[in-house]
Q: What sequence folds into this?
């Protein structure tokens, strides 16, 4: 190993370094050279002292990025459990095994083993969803946005959908309800005011052109104070009287009660079905804790119409998704979600358990301090769905730079900065990742000391 120096090393030395030269066969000499130029140029601009080892490591990192063909695993230290940018819910070991088992082999994905004829891709998973949700039938598509789209296209194209003005939301990632309605050729009929909407407002807006009454989970925002919204039950009653189906876009769609974990109760799929809503749409990778998917559950005759929509062909899920979702749903049997699903394991960790883990950090990092923090469910759960947590605060003059160093590490660690301090929230870090986080912090400490 070359000794760390203070001058920027020469290009040829870097290209000849044995840990760099190996990349040439894969990426070609020119791309390796350009990566090295980029890093050296950046080091010059920064005007900071960077040793040979640090520069070579940075070049290697850049080359790894260039040669990778898929996203890389990161450690989530943000305290946001369902972080859309970090891939939302980590899958359960059951789901991972199911993907490995089914992915590498043929399966009866669309094949009826009894008759030897073509079967339905949704048959088995539909049955599992019926059992979990209490709905008459269910269907899986690519994500919840696709589920909403399919519902609107099937029932409301060229007709009217009534929505409370207080629920005309943008869900993030550019999913704006009014625009989705427009794209599907649906006429939006807004009723009520931003803060107060009554079931009578829906009733007055009914017309022969009304296709659906739509209820949308407010997800990432909240209207407080002098507010009113019709209950799902009242809307369902109106829908039945008028012969118009009520659709509820739940988004996060829990199957169990989050209040049991000490956070705000989140409306469950079973509650929506129990309230008499005709169709519910929700995500597979939010509070279900499974793979990216969108689920429509509800009345059998309406699900049958969704199945007959040719658009379904474009929105259908692959076998890996079905395998993972099926295994995830199995985790809800016998209330095993708490043990088997990473999301619920993380939610279930007690403050004492987190405190105990924090001791390892305090011991290894004398500068760091441990304190209580607040973690969030995220992923379109209510904004107030928070849960007490513990975080490691790492002192730094430049927390942004420290955060960048942690992101550049192996594995990358994504943190949060709060009040000018860099925090690592223990609720989203898996206990088996603690030693990796500590090692990264120690390494960075040495590099900057
Ligand atoms: C998150 C969310 C969606 C979109 O779900 P995806 O699975 O990301 O497509 C739609 N509606 C609501 C209310 C949501 O919270």
A:
């Amino acid at each position: 190993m070359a000794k760390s120096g203070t001058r920027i090393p020469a290009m040829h030395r870097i290209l000849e370094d044995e840990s760099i030269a190996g990349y040439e066969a894969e990426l070609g000499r020119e791309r390796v050279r350009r990566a090295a130029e980029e890093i050296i140029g950046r080091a010059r601009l920064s005007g900071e002292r960077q040793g040979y080892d640090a520069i070579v490591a940075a070049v290697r990192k850049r080359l790894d990025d260039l040669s990778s063909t898929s996203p890389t695993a990161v450690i989530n230290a943000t305290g946001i459990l369902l972080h859309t940018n970090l891939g939302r819910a980590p899958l359960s070991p059951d789901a991972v095994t199911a993907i490995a088992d089914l992915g590498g082999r043929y399966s009866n994905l669309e094949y009826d083993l009894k008759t030897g004829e073509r079967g339905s891709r949704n048959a088995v998973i539909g049955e599992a969803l019926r059992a979990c949700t209490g709905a008459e039938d269910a269907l899986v598509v690519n994500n919840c946005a696709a589920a909403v789209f399919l519902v609107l296209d099937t029932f409301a194209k060229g007709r009217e959908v009534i929505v409370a003005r207080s629920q005309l939301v943008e869900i993030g990632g550019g999913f704006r309800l009014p625009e989705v309605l427009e794209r599907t050729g649906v006429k939006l009929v807004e009723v009520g005011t931003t803060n107060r909407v009554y079931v009578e407002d829906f009733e007055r807006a009914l017309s022969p052109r009304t296709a659906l009454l739509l209820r949308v989970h407010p997800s990432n925002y909240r209207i407080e104070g002098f507010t009113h919204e019709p209950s799902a039950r009242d809307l369902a009653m109106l829908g039945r009287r008028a012969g118009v189906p009520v659709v509820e876009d739940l988004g996060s769609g829990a199957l169990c009660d989050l209040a049991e974990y000490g956070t705000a109760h989140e409306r469950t799929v079973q509650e929506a079905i129990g309230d008499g809503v005709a169709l519910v749409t929700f995500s597979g990778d939010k509070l279900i804790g499974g793979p990216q998917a969108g689920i429509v559950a509800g009345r059998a005759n309406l699900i049958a119409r969704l199945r007959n929509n040719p658009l379904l062909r474009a929105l259908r899920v692959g076998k890996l998704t079905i395998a993972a979702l099926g295994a995830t749903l199995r985790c809800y049997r016998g209330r095993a979600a708490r043990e088997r699903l990473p999301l619920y394991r993380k939610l279930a960790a007690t403050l004492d358990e987190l405190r105990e883990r924090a001791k390892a950090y305090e011991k290894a990092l004398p500068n760091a301090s441990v304190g209580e923090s607040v973690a969030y469910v995220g992923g379109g759960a209510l904004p107030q769905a928070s849960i007490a947590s513990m975080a490691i605060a790492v002192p730094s003059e430049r927390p942004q730079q420290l955060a960048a160093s942690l992101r550049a590490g192996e594995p990358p660690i994504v943190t949060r900065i709060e009040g000018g301090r860099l925090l690592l929230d223990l609720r989203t870090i898996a206990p088996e990742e603690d030693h990796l986080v500590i090692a990264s912090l120690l390494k960075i400490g040495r590099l900057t000391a």
